[in-house]
Amino acid sequence: QVMLVESGGGVVQPGGSLRLSCAASGFTFSTTVMRWARQAPGKGFEWISDITPDGNAYYEDSVRGRFTISRDNAKNSLYLQMNSLKFEDTAVYYCSTGIQRGQGTQVTVSS
Q1: How far apart are CA 70 and CA 18, in angstroms?
Q2: pLDDT band with cut points at 50, 70 and 90 for residue 13
Q3: Phi and psi dihedrals of 7, rounded to 5?
Q4: Per-residue pLDDT, 50
Q5: Burial 41-74 (b: 16+ CB within 10 A, else e)
Q6: Percentage of the chain modeled with pLDDT above 70
Q7: Which of 45, 40, 89, 49 is nearest to 68 (CA)?
Q8: What is the SS3 string spanning the chain?
């Protein structure tokens, strides 16, 4: 049974940073392309970033240069370091295999 559990969300001021984590189980994490996506209030899901098993990373334009995706295959864990956060980054952030996703973690950027 695939399980993805996100953590690390919270409330942060504009310009601040957060680090999201995702604990994965129930599948072969080390050979799976992993993804972060988000859903802002009243909007659809938005792809943010992918990382290949060997660490090649890809980013959506609005987060490139501010967000960094990483993984630890030994710990079956996925991460998203978010810097220079903006109001428009407010959303529920999801860890995903591309097919299944976790329950999400709320990120709120507010002054």
Answers
A1: 14
A2: very high
A3: -155, 170
A4: 98
A5: eeeeeeebbbbeeeeeeebeeebeeebbbebebe
A6: 100
A7: 49
A8: CCEEEEECCEEECCCCCEEEEEEEECCCHHHCCEEEEEECCCCCEEEEEEECCCCCEEECCCCECCEEEEEECCCCEEEEEECCCCHHHCEEEEEECCCCECCCEEEEECC
